[in-house]
Amino acid sequence: MKEFVISEAKTETAVLVALITPQQDERKTKEYLDELEFLAETAGAKTIRRFTQRTGGPNSTTYVGKGKLEEIAAFIKEEEDAEREVGMVIFDDELSARQLKNIEAELKVKILDRTSLILDIFAMRAQTANAKTQVELAQYRYLLPRLTRLWTHLERQGGGSGSGGGKGSVGLRGPGETQLEMDRRIILDRMSLLKKRLVEIDRQKTTQRKNRGRLIRVALVGYTNVGKSTLMNLLAKSDVFAENKLFATLDTTVRKVVVGNLPFLLADTVGFIRKLPTDLVDSFKSTLDEVREADLLVHVVDISHPDFEEQIEVVERTLAEIGAGGKPSIVVFNKIDAYTYVHKDTDDLTPRTKENWSLDELEQSWMAKLEGECIFISAREKTNIEALRKKLYTMVRQLHVQKYPYNDFLYPSADDLESIE
């Protein structure tokens, strides 16, 4: 079963494969491949080649067409002949059991898809019993419908017709099918146990949340690798693990933060990503409950990313899917120190694109669009952090007064913001 994931953090070589379709143009496909390469790097693999194919949609049997698959196979053979082994081929979309079986038969190397790659990274990143349980459940959910291809060498021999599965099939149920049924039962039993564990973990976490007292809860949300953990460390003066890799944070971390003399709880949560597997969202229910039950969401955005607007849409869509849409929120555009743009001369009559927008222009447009409920910062350079603290103070205080009106006298008014350090 472990053949689907990279179990060791060693450097392997990888080939990436993606499709250009009517729904996903060439520019979008390149961005997805860039992200897939970053995922592969995070998992410990080095990308040596990319393959794309323009088509109407994925081939139901081999994902790409027969000619493209032969081209990939020829490249792998060339590398092997030159004593440069190709460790794996990674596909940008989730593959079915049938596609996996056919592709492996043709390429004869390890085959991964985006989902199995993300699951492998989650398995590497999981530190607590909670995260490990959630990742293991998600892995089993992924593996269960793909078990059949593990036992192809032991498939039963028998043909024919009728409900018995073929002429002469009675009494000829082969060891492959028996082993498959045994594995399926073992996995289902294990999944049942893991679900019970998660229910217990969820109950414990619910109790913990109830015992946190009369404090407003704020959750940092956003796409993966936008700087949430770095911001958490700044605001909470903590040492949450932060790294320039995807999914550096899996376990939700909650810290008490005091701005002025106003305390609130700040949670750092797992980052979202495009094409995030549904099973993964379901498995991480107890982690995402911190987002669902938050009073205020701080949506962190990497303003330096060329496709940050789509990342915003992905996060907002995922929040809506988990039942956390419509909450009070503030958008924090991070990494302004890394933002670059292409200056456009006044005599240049070519159409202006988003690459030509300066940071000031972006700030003005988004401030207007979000009615001022956003701020531009650099967590790494600590730029505009004090302005963020004041904005957080104002919003948390408003929510606190609404939720706990009789505690209002404990906290300074907005006029006292100048004294906030």
How is this structure best described in words?
The chain has 421 residues and is α/β, with parallel strands linked by helices. The chain has three domains: 10-124, GTPase HflX, N-terminal domain (Rossmann fold, 3-Layer(aba) Sandwich), CATH 3.40.50; 133-151 and 174-211; 213-419, P-loop containing nucleotide triphosphate hydrolases (Rossmann fold, 3-Layer(aba) Sandwich), CATH 3.40.50.300. The protein has helices spanning 26-43, 66-81, 97-107, 114-125, 129-143, 175-210, 228-236, 278-283, 285-292, 308-321, 359-369, 385-403, and strands spanning 12-20, 45-54, 88-91, 110-113, 217-222, 253-259, 262-268, 296-302, 329-334, 374-376. The radius of gyration is 25 Å and the shape is globular. The N and C termini lie far apart (54 Å). Mean pLDDT is 81; it is low at 151-169.
Give a quick summary of the entry.
This protein has 421 residues and is α/β, with parallel strands linked by helices. Helix content is 42%, strand content 15%.
